[in-house]
Specification:
By secondary structure, this protein is mainly beta. It contains one helix and twelve strands. The protein is elongated and about 50 Å long.
């Protein structure tokens, strides 16, 4: 793996320092960043397209939901799909090794990916992690985390070209501009 140095940036895009290469960093990491700040900072995202590592506060790591693809059912797929179509499935979910089951509701998003909405905000969800859902001790299925849904007051980074509301994290457009419709002013959007 080739190490290409790049910038550490905050949620507003201000450069905070230089990193050694993207493979050295993971969402939630606090130690070994090599950035001197007056308060603790954490890796809140890694942007491979721009070779940047996003840093923020501990509260910037919380998300209310995640999206996942490459979904595989362990339970009978026809029954699980019927429950999804009927409004969702109450599950226990894990996205970290040895994590306690987290109460959540599994639905299918408009884009066809699975949407797992947690009862309580979760910390440091990162794309590429495995997520597994359970009903009691029975594994229902699992997939690969593709993104997180950020709660009000936080910033989401989205995919390159997306325009996101910095208040709720909703994707307002994909690659273009649109009216905020009750969202944060356009000057505050993260692109």
């Amino acid at each position: 793996v080739k190490m290409i140095p790049g910038d550490f940036v905050d949620r507003a895009g201000h450069v905070l320092g230089r990193h050694k290469g993207l493979p050295c960093y993971t969402t939630g990491q606090r130690k070994g960043l090599g950035v001197a700040m007056a308060h603790p900072v954490y890796v809140t995202g890694v942007d491979a397209a721009n070779n940047t590592v996003h840093l923020g506060e501990a509260e910037d790591l919380t998300a209310t939901a995640l999206t996942a693809d490459d979904w595989i059912w362990s339970a009978p797929a026809d029954r699980m799909e019927a429950e999804l179509d009927a409004g969702g499935i109450r599950v226990g979910a894990k996205y970290r090794y040895r994590q306690k089951d987290q109460a959540a509701t599994l639905t299918r998003g408009e884009d066809g990916q699975m949407l797992l909405t947690f009862d309580e905000p979760q910390r440091a969800i990162a794309p590429g992690q495995a997520v597994v859902v359970y009903r009691g001790d029975v594994v229902l299925g699992g997939g690969t985390v593709t993104g997180e849904v950020i709660p009000a007051g936080c910033t989401s980074y989205g995919k390159a070209g997306d325009t996101l509301c910095v208040v709720c994290g909703e994707v307002l457009t994909e690659g273009g501009k649109t009216e905020p419709n009750g969202h944060a002013p356009e000057s505050d959007w993260v692109i």
